[in-house]
Amino acid sequence: MITATPQRVSRTGQAGAAYVMLWAFLVLNLAIVELMLANPSRPAYNTLVQIGRVFGMHLAFALALQLLLIARLPFLDRRIGMDKLTTWHRWTGFTIFWLVLLHPTFVMLGYARLENASFLSRIPALGKQMPVLLGMIAAGLIGVIAVTSIRAARRRFSYEVWHTIHLLVYTVIVLGVIHQVYEGSAFKTNNFTQAYWWGLWIFAIGALITGRLLLPLVRNLRHRLRVAAVVSEADDVVSVHVTGRNLHKLHARAGQFFLWRFPGHNRWWQVNPWSLSAAPDGHSLRLTAKAIGRTSAGLRQLPVGTRVFAEGPYGAFTAAARTRQDTVLIAGGIGITPIRALFEDETLSGDIVVLYRVRTPADAVLLGELRNLAALRHARLHVLTGRTGPDNQPFSPAGLLALVPDITERDVFVCGPGPMTNEVLRSLKALKVPARQRHAEQFRLAA
């Protein structure tokens, strides 16, 4: 049996250590940037130019931090979780957007005042200087990425289009580094500043290349993944079974997800995050997806034997996060996939209650498997149907208590549409379920 106390100490300690390292990295580097600003290589021409320089230095660091966040470092991912790291990525992205607006604006205002010229007249003049022009191009690309990240705009694009647009961030980084090296006076202050910036960029770019290119290439060459079977689960839901060599060496866990590509069937940039819908057994992996975008809709036509390129496993939504003996698993719609895998995980011992929210019983994907697992594990399975209304609010505080009276004494794992997940988390907070017992997975993926 798995005892609660050792798990709680281990898991909380791991996540806490990861957050401490992340914040320490942030604070330490910001302190170094402030020291460099306090000792510039040459005085600014005026206050406006100095303010622009301050924004520029912080912009350079924010870009490096963004690289580290999208590098998907295993140390952070396995302790904090991809969805929480993506929240950092999102806020860093919008910070970069505002710094990109403020940095050139103040610099141009400063030079306009210095030369007694208009602000707009400085734009073509600076644009004729190649390092500055590269910075302007990078700023424009950041604007495109930021606009498409706004929720209202995001809903208008398929996931594949949105993801392709966000690949522009790599072009931004290249242009930004060139701009800083050739134009940034703060980069050339002294040997220390040059060593710092080169060290930071080498570390960030090295982490990105290792995490997003080298490690996936090595893993896929080692495991040689192929499609073994394609099974229709419903009219708009399909499962893909993947096999390969030595899959136990992937160390994948129930509740985690991979980024899946199918070379030859889809374009290389078309990648989707799909959870494992069955606990990995060392011999095969299974993903289950609903036909939402072009890639997911095309899974039904995947030929057996198709090559598979997978990045991962990612995510901290696993049984290792438990702090209590008993568990509640809550799913909505296709969010059942990681919940179903967790339900099968043998390390998830104790009493288990599963709450599955769907519009109608016909919408309950993998229901037969869930019922078999419930019988095998002596667990309780509640399929919650119907429209949400005054008389049907299963995820309100009162609704959760009615279904699971001892919910405050359990770990709660929830995965589903954003509004449903947020409602469950609000109710758990209202019921005073400790934060360490609340575990949620939301696919807010970075590029």
Automatic annotation (TrEMBL):
Q: Which cofactor does it need?
A: FAD
InterPro entries attached to this UniProt entry: FAD-bd_8, FAD-bd_FR_type, Fe3_Rdtase_TM_dom, FNR_nucleotide-bd, MRET, OxRdtase_FAD/NAD-bd, Riboflavin_synthase-like_b-brl
User: Chief subcellular site?
Assistant: membrane
Q: Which cellular component terms (GO) are annotated to the entry?
A: membrane
The UniProt keywords, alphabetically, are: 2Fe-2S, FAD, Flavoprotein, Iron, Iron-sulfur, Membrane, Metal-binding, Oxidoreductase, Transmembrane, Transmembrane helix
- Could you confirm whether the keyword Ribosomal protein appears in this record? no
TM stretches of this protein: 16-38, 50-70, 91-112, 132-153, 165-182, 194-215
Q: Which CDD domains match?
A: FNR_like_3 (cd06198)
User: What topology in the membrane does the UniProt record assign?
Assistant: Multi-pass membrane protein
User: Which cellular compartments is it found in?
Assistant: Membrane
Q: Which GO terms describe its molecular function?
A: 2 iron, 2 sulfur cluster binding; flavin adenine dinucleotide binding; metal ion binding; oxidoreductase activity
Domain (FAD-binding FR-type): give its ranges: 220-320
Q: What is this protein called?
A: Putative ferric reductase
Q: State the organism of origin.
A: Paractinoplanes brasiliensis
